[in-house]
Specification:
Elements lengths: L1 H16 L1 H20 L9 H28 L2 H7 L4 H26 L4 H28 L3 H22 L3 H7 L3 H17 L1
Helix pairs in contact: 1-5, 2-3, 2-5, 3-5, 3-6, 3-7, 3-9, 5-6, 6-7, 6-9, 7-8, 7-9
């Protein structure tokens, strides 16, 4: 448990030293807020941009960030030193994953406040977002462990993250893409959250 907390703390310090990683958790809610405030089209669901940006964040941002963090530790041999120091692989992954899940939950709360959700919908939204971000963290960790360095991690994570992150947005405007996008968990986030609005209309 102590080792897991140490990895958690180490990752927090690393992220605050790296503005590029930190901005991922701020940029998507900021875009959602701006689009929600200034774009108004007749018939558009009130939370369209919130759900869209939330799905992109859950898929794209976290996969790249987590894979890069682990690949960096492997490349710099930090992970080897941690293992020599007695840190178990599962403790390392719990520390890394726990930190990013906590950070992603804070971002999900920001999305929740931007969206026009009832109390029940807000809870459901948070559960869906935490589940989706957990899936992305697992995927990112897997890619990070496969990669030998940051360059390989980027080459693996960027195309995968782009597909699972942006496909729900494209599916919103293209029926053909929508038909095949249902296999992606990010698209399921989009569908479930948008069902809040559809249920209100019935």
């Amino acid at each position: 448990m102590r080792s897991t907390k140490a990895i958690f703390t180490k990752q927090a310090k690393d992220m605050f030293k790296n503005p590029t990683a930190l901005i991922v958790f701020i940029l998507f809610p900021a875009v959602a807020f701006i689009m929600t405030m200034f774009v108004d089209v007749d018939g558009m669901p009130p939370n369209m941009f919130v759900t869209m940006m939330a799905a992109i964040f859950a898929g794209m941002g976290l996969v790249q960030t987590v894979s890069a963090a682990i690949a960096e530790d492997i490349e710099r041999k930090s992970l080897r030193f941690l293992i020599i120091a007695g840190v178990k692989p599962h403790q390392y992954l719990l520390g890394i994953g726990g930190f990013y899940l906590s950070a992603a939950t804070v971002t999900a709360v920001l999305f929740m406040f931007i969206g026009e959700f009832t109390a029940t919908e807000a809870i459901r939204f948070l559960v869906i977002m935490v589940s989706g971000t957990a899936a992305s963290i697992i995927l990112g960790a897997t890619l990070g462990m496969i990669a030998k360095n940051l360059q390989v991690a980027a080459s693996l994570s960027v195309p995968i993250a782009t597909i699972i992150g942006f496909t729900p947005m494209i599916a919103s405007f293209n029926k053909t893409v929508e038909k095949y996008a249902v296999v992606l968990y990010t698209q399921q986030i989009n569908i479930i959250v948008n069902d809040f609005y559809l249920n209100e209309k019935l």
